[in-house]
Write a structure and sequence with these properties.
Elements lengths: L1 E5 L3 H13 L3 E5 L2 H10 L4 E4 L2 E2 L2 E2 L1 H9 L5 E6 L4 H9 L4 E4 L4 H16 L5 E4 L2 E4 L4 E4 L2 E3 L3 H12 L5 E2 H9 L10 H16 L6 E4 L3 E4 L3
Parallel strand pairs: 1-2, 1-3, 3-6, 6-7
Antiparallel strand pairs: 4-5, 8-9, 9-10, 10-11, 12-14, 13-14
Amino acid sequence: MKILIIEDEKALGQSISDYLQAEAYTCELVADKHSALQRIESFDYDCILLDISLPDGNGLQVLKALRENNKTDGVIIISARDGIEDRIHGLQLGADDYLVKPFHLSELSARIAAVIRRRRFSGTSILEAAGLTVDTAARTVRVGNQPADLTRSEYDLLLYLLTNRNRVVSKHAIAEHLSGDGESLFDNYDFIYAHMKNLKKKLIQAGWTDHIKAVYGMGYKLEAP
């Protein structure tokens, strides 16, 4: 799961990023509105943490840009403004949640998980498709009653394919999703091939019938009824 943190307080932003990465999220951190607008224009995120008070403008303009472009990224406003008018205004603009600073990182993590469940998995932490059962809270995968022991990258890859099932996802999109800011550092997509090969091998060993198809010159598609 990929998180964009828009926070101009450097220490707080880094603290949030470190905590969420330890929770197995992929995080990107920006500190101003201009950089945030560039990111949301180019990439999709499972959840965006949005500070309102940014050095070059109001963070709510980022939220407006998201919704005007019909993007479905989840958004949690994180702000020191605790007035009821600010909360209502943010939610009316399309935010999924509003968390007042200071907050416990564990509460922030719980709220992120709730937003992603609602946005990506119809409100449940259990995803069943293509003969697989994925518990997104426990981060476990089963084929029938047989557990599949996946690495973090393999799990993230599978969840990304399941979230976009029956659609072709490009190798570029997969690389960007798995590696976040590091995507531009790769000269090729060999690491995707390696993760895909290992993922399919482990699932098949657990008894799965392979539903992941390579689409020549484009990417991959997980086919599921």
